[in-house]
Amino acid sequence: MFEARFQSFDDPQPAQTGPRVQALRAELARLELSGLILPRADRHQNEYVPPSEERLAWLTGFTGSAGTTVVLADRAALFVDGRYTLAAKTQIDTSVFTIVPIADTSPERWLEQNLPSGGKLGYDPWLHTAEGAERLARACANAGATLVPVEPNPIDTIWTDRPARPLGPVVLHDLRFAGEATNAKLDKIRAEIASLRTDALVVSDPHAVAWTFNIRGSDVAHTPLPIAFAIVPKQGRPTLYIDSAKLSNAVRHKLEEATEVREPTAFVSDLKALGEAHRTVRLDQATGAEALSRIIGEAGGKVTRGLDPIAMMKAVKNPVEIEGARAAHRRDGAAVTRFLAWLDREAPKGQLTEIGAVEALESFRRDTGLLKDVSFPSISGAGPDGAIVHYRVTRSTDRTIAPGELFLIDSGGQYQDGTTDITRTVAVGEPSQEMRERFTLVLKGHIAIARAVFPEGIAGSQLDPFARQALWTHGLDFDHGTGHGVGSYLSVHEGPARISKLGNTALKRGMILSNEPGYYKAGEYGIRIENLVLVVEGPTAAGAEKPLNAFETLTLAPIDRRLVERKLLTAAEISWLDAYHARVAQELG
Amino acid sequence: MFEARFQSFDDPQPAQTGPRVQALRAELARLELSGLILPRADRHQNEYVPPSEERLAWLTGFTGSAGTTVVLADRAALFVDGRYTLAAKTQIDTSVFTIVPIADTSPERWLEQNLPSGGKLGYDPWLHTAEGAERLARACANAGATLVPVEPNPIDTIWTDRPARPLGPVVLHDLRFAGEATNAKLDKIRAEIASLRTDALVVSDPHAVAWTFNIRGSDVAHTPLPIAFAIVPKQGRPTLYIDSAKLSNAVRHKLEEATEVREPTAFVSDLKALGEAHRTVRLDQATGAEALSRIIGEAGGKVTRGLDPIAMMKAVKNPVEIEGARAAHRRDGAAVTRFLAWLDREAPKGQLTEIGAVEALESFRRDTGLLKDVSFPSISGAGPDGAIVHYRVTRSTDRTIAPGELFLIDSGGQYQDGTTDITRTVAVGEPSQEMRERFTLVLKGHIAIARAVFPEGIAGSQLDPFARQALWTHGLDFDHGTGHGVGSYLSVHEGPARISKLGNTALKRGMILSNEPGYYKAGEYGIRIENLVLVVEGPTAAGAEKPLNAFETLTLAPIDRRLVERKLLTAAEISWLDAYHARVAQELG
After folding, report:
1. In what order do the strands lie in the sheet containing B260-262?
2. 3-state secondary structure of A327
3. Average of per-residue pLDDT across A503-525
4. In a 10 Å sphere around its CB, with 0-12 CB exposed, 13-18 middle and 19+ buried, how is residue A216 labelled?
5. pLDDT confidence of B197, banded at 50, 70, 90?
6. Contacts from A569-573 at CB under 8 Å and sequence distance 24+?
7. Which of B83-97, B469-483, B485-499 has the lowest mean pLDDT?
8. CB–CB of A543 and B475 under 8 A?
9. Cα B353 from chain centroid (whole Å)
10. Across the strands, what pairs with B537?
11. Contact B75, B114 (CB under 8 A)
12. pLDDT higher than 90, residue A367
C-alpha cells in the first residue's frame, strides 16, 4: 500500500483573520504604532520555517513560502510574487487584506504611498536582514514616517496558542558522509576570518552551522536542519548556541571536542560582549537579522556584512561527498525508474491521480531503506496542472492523470550521502505532435547544458542561454532559472551558484547543480526535464590556455523517448541521448 | 598624401610631477586637509574630457581614459585598471606615485588602510557621482577619518596655466538626421518625469542634452558633444545651460522655440531655487555629480536617483536614424574596403607602419567628403601589438607591419547620419595554421551573434556566451565584452545596452550594438572581428508566443578569407560568410 509519510495534501484551513487582525490592531494601538510589517520569515531567513514561526500564515491564512503583509490601522496589504497571486486569492480574506502583486508595487513603494505622515511602522528586527530594514527605513522616511523596532513581535503577544519552538534531535553527520572533520573546516573558516580583517564570524545560516559542525537536525520539514547560531572567533574555540534538549550526551560530547556548546539564550549576551569589547564582527548579508547588527553596534562593536564564506565552502563538495552523491543518485535513480515503469502500467488505466502518484513515488523511495525525508514536497501535475510551475497538489485540487495528457513529476529525496532532485515528464496515452516538438526543444536545451564545456571562472549566467536557445528560435521560453545549487544531505536549494540570468558565481569543480529547462503552456500542459549535474574536470584541449570544466550527470532515470522528435535533434544530441540511456541501464543494473 | 587630421601619435610628455605634487601638498596643508582624491573625470562623467578637465594627467602624467589618484601628506597612489598598468609605469614618476592595480586594491580599501585616523580627505563633489562619494565616505569612516567636499578643486588653485573651458560651436542636428523634433522628445521626457513621480529631471549627460535638443557640438574629441546641462520640469519649458559663446544667433533662435537658454552660471542658482521650493528632483545616477544632490538637498529639496530615462530613448533609433545608419555604413564600408584593398597591395612591401595605416585609413574616410571626425583614435596593432587590447600607436611605439604577421585595425567615423566602428584582422604574407584556426573560432563566435534569434525581453548578457562558445571548447576566451551600444552621430560607446556578462538591459528593435569577439595571444598576435549590428524584427515562427528579434549587420567590408579554416565551420556558418560577402559586393557596387 502506497503512502506519503513525509508530505501531506491537506487543503489549507482558512484562518480566523478578522479577529486576529482586530487583536493585532488593538495591540499596535497599545504600543502607539501606526502599523506592523510582517514577512514570512524566521530568525535565519530559512526557506522552510518551523510552525512556531509561521506568523504570516496565522495572521492572514496565506501559506506560500514567501510573502509580506503590512497592517495599518485602516488598511492592510499582502504582497505576493507571481507564484502565489492565484493561490493567495483563495486563502485570504480579501475584505481584510488587499493582495498586491510585488512586481507591480513593492512594500517599500506601498509604504511611501500609504503610511501616514508622522506615523511609526513597527518591525521585528529578527525577521529582516539589515539591507531589508534599511530599504524599509528609507521608504518610511520618504513617507515622513519612521521605522521602529518592536520586541517581542506583537504577533507573539496575541498568538496565545503559538506552537513551541522545535526541539528536533540532532545527530552527528558521520565522517564517512561528511568527508572532512569539523576542526579542519574551522581552520579554513578562521583563515577566511583573518583575510576579512575581522575578529569573529556570526554563523546565522543553520545550513552553515550543520556543515561546519558535521551535525544534522530535524527542526524543519525536508531539510535536516538544526536551528542554531554559532560564533567563530578569529582565534580560539567557537561557540554553538543550540537548545540542549536537542542534544544527547553522546552528541554533546562529540561537539565539545571542537566547540563550546551554550543555550540559545546566551547568544544575545555573547554578541553584546563582543560589542562591549569593541570587536569587529562579520555578519552574513543573506541570513543575518538586523537585530544582530543592532545588538553589536549598540554595545560598541563594529559590524561588517558580506557573502557568507561558509556558503562557498559547502557549495564545493569534497571527494567523499561526491562519491556519496553518486551512490545516492544510483539508489534514488533505481527507485524513480521503478516508479516510472509502474506509472507506465498504471496510468493508462485512468484511475491514478496526482496524489496517488506522489504516494507511490515516495513509497518506492522509502523502499530503499535509506530515505530520510523527501527533499521538498513533490510537484505532481497532470495535464494543465503541469503548466503551473509551483503546483502543489491538495485533496481539493487532485486530478486524475488522463490519457492524451502529459504528466510532470518533480521530486527528490534526502539520504545521508546525498540530496536528490529530479523531474520527469511522461506521456500518458498518445501525445500531440506539438507536445513532442516542444518536449524535444526542452530536451535540446537540457542536452546543451549536460554537454557544456567551459573554462574555469565561467558563471552559471553564462551557460543559462544554452538551455533556452532552441526554444528561443521558436519564439518560446521558460519563466524560471535553468538550475540551482544542491547541498549534501542539506538544502535542495543551495546557493550561491545558479544557472540563471543572475547567477554570477563562478562554477567550480565539486559543485552540484540542477539542469532543469522547461516549457509551460497555460491551461494545457507543462514540460520539465531535470537532472542534477556535478561540475568536473573537462576534456583536455590542445593549446588550451585555461583549465576546462564540464558536467557529469548524476541523475539516472529514463527520459520518455515517446516524447522525443528525433528529426529535431542533431547527431551529437541523439548520441548523447542514447549514451545516457545506455549508462542508466548499465549503472542501475 | 595620406594624413591623420583627427588623431595624433605624439608620445605623452612627462609631467613635472614633483613640483606639482609639492604645490598640491602645500595647498592641502593650507586647507587643513590630510589629502585629496582626484579621479580622471569632468563634471559630466564623460569618457572624453576637455583639456581644461585633464587634472589627473596634469598632476601625474598618466593619460589613460580612466584612473584615480589619492595624494596624502606622505604618500600617493595612482589606481589603474588592467588596460593601463603597463602604460602607467612609463608615464608616471614612481618615486612620487605608487601604481595600484584597481583589481587588487580599490581606492576605498587603500583609504581604509592608509588614511590617518582623524584625518580629512578632500574631494571635489563635481567629479564624483553620489554613489561614488557615498562609497568614499564609508571608506573614510572605516578609517576613522572624514570625507570633506572642497570647492574649488585644489588643483585649479595651483594649475595656473589651466586651459580655458571649451567653447566649441554648436550646430543644429537637422531633422533629416534626427528624425524626431525636440518638442516631441520633450513630450516623452515629461511623460517619464510624471511616471517617476518627480517634479523635474536634471539632464547631466551632454549626450542626452544633444539628443533632446537636436544639437551637436565640438567640445571634446571624437564625439560631437556640446558640454551643457539642462533641467526639464514636469510642466512648462525646459532650460538649457550653455555658454552663449557656443551659439550663433540662428542656433539660439531655433533652440528658443523649445527651451529657455541660460548661461552655465545660472545652473547652480536654478538648482537652489528648485530646492528652496521643496521640489523633488530626479538625477541620473551615472552622470549626476554629487554636487547636484548637495545643492538641491541643502536648499530644502528632495533628490531621487536612477537610470537616465533619456538614455533608453536615444538607444532606440527611430526610422530616420536607422536609414541614416545604413547610409553611413555603406559610405564608411566603401572607404574601409578601398583601404583594405590598398593595404593588401602595400603591406607586403614591408614599408608600411601602424601609423601609416591609420593615416591612410583616415584619408580614405575623409575622401567620402562627409567625415566629421573619427569616432575614436584608431587601434592599429601589427604582430604582437595586436594582442594589446587597448593599444594606441605613438611615434615611439610605431611598428612596421611585417609579413608573416597579423595586422588588427579597429577604427570608426562620425558622419551626421551615423557613427561607425569596425575591426578587421588581416594576414600579411602567410599566416600560421594556429592563427587561422583561432581566427576561425573567433569568426564562429561573431557569426553566432550575427545569426542570433531571440525573444523580445532578452538582454545582451544572454547572448554574450554564444560569442565565446567555440573558443571555450578549445580552452580559450577573450577578456572584454562582445559588444557595446553605439549612438547616432553621438558616442561610439553608448549605453545602456551591452552584449557582455553584465549587460542586463533588454535588447530592443532599433538599438545599434557592436559584435566584436576576439582572441589575443600575448607577445604574438591579436584577432578581433567587429561589425555593428541593428536589432530588427526576427523571423516568424509558427506557434511563437513571444515576438522574435534578430540582428541586421550594418557594417559592409570584407573579412579576410585567407584566415578562415573552412573545415572548422558548419554548413550554416559557411552559408552566412558567403552571403555576407555577396551582400558587401552588391551594396558597395
Report:
1. B260-262, B239-241, B229-233, B200-203, B280-284, B302-306
2. helix
3. 97
4. buried
5. confident
6. A569/A440, A569/A443, A569/A444, A572/A451, A573/A443, A573/A444, A573/A447
7. B83-97
8. yes
9. 27
10. B549
11. yes
12. yes
For the residues B581-586, what does the mean pLDDT come to? 98
Which residues of chain A are within 8 Å of residue B542 when distances are taken between CB atoms?
474
Q: Is B454 part of the contact surface with chain A (CB cutoff 8 Å)?
A: yes
> pTM value?
0.92
> With an 8 Å Cβ cutoff, are A541 and B473 in contact?
yes
- Please give the Cα distance from A426 to A407 (Å, whole number): 5
What angle do helix axes A290-299 and A265-276 make, rounded to 10 degrees?
Answer: 40
* Residue A473 forms contact with B (CB below 8 Å): yes
Quickly state the pLDDT bin for B589 (edges 50, 70, 90): confident
8 Å CB contact between A547 and A559: no
Helix (H) / strand (E) element for B414: namely strand B413-415
Residue the block writes with cell 604582430:
B383
Number of C-beta neighbours around residue A186 at 10 A: 17
Residues A466, B469: C-beta atoms closer than 8 Å? yes
Q: Are B121 and B142 in contact (CB under 8 A)?
A: no
Query: Is A85 a residue whose pLDDT tops 90?
Result: no
Q: Spell out which residues of chain B touch residue A454, defining contact as CB-CB under 8 Å.
A: 472
Look at B547 and A461 and tell me if their CB atoms are within 8 Å: no
pLDDT score of A122 = 98
Residue A291: other Cβ atoms inside 10 A: 20
Partner-chain contact A545 B475, CB within 8 Å: yes
- Partners of A468 on chain B (C-beta within 8 Å) are 462
- Whole-number Å distance between alpha carbons of B244 and B261: 8
Which residues, 6+ apart, have CB-to-CB distance to B253 below 8 Å?
none
Cβ distance of B547 and A475 shorter than 8 Å: yes
The residues with which B230 forms a beta bridge, in sequence order, are: B203, B240
- Note whether A477 contacts B: Cβ–Cβ < 8 A: yes
Residue B463 sits at the chain A interface (C-beta within 8 Å): yes
Nearest Cα to Cα of residue B461 among A446, A500, A515? A500
Q: Flag the least confident range among A114-118, A146-150, A360-364, A463-467.
A: A114-118
Minimal C-alpha gap between A472 and chain B (Å): 5
Does B535 score more than 90 pLDDT?
A: yes
**What interhelical angle do B464-472 and B433-450 show, nearest 10?**
150
| Distance to chain B for A545, nearest Cα, Å | 6
Cis before B455 (ω within 30):
no
d(C-alpha B229, C-alpha B379), whole Å: 32
The pLDDT of residue B557 is 98
How far away is chain B from the Cα of A458, in angstroms, using its nearest Cα?
10
pLDDT tens readout for residues B265-275: 999 999 999 99
Is B479 touching A (CB cutoff 8 A)? Answer: no
β-pairing verdict for A531-537 and A548-553? antiparallel
The CA distance from B38 to B36, in Å, is 6
Whether residue A546 lies within 8 A of chain B, CB to CB, comes out as yes
| Average pLDDT value over all residues in chain B | 96
Q: Give percent helix, percent strand, percent coil of chain B, each to the nearest 5.
A: 40, 20, 40
Whether residue B249 has pLDDT greater than 90:
yes
Is B543's CB within 8 Å of A434's CB?
Answer: yes
Query: Given this model, what pLDDT does residue A88 score?
Result: 87
Q: Does A224 sit behind a cis peptide bond, omega within 30 degrees of 0 on the bond before it?
A: no
- Confirm or reject contact between B278 and chain A (CB < 8 A): no
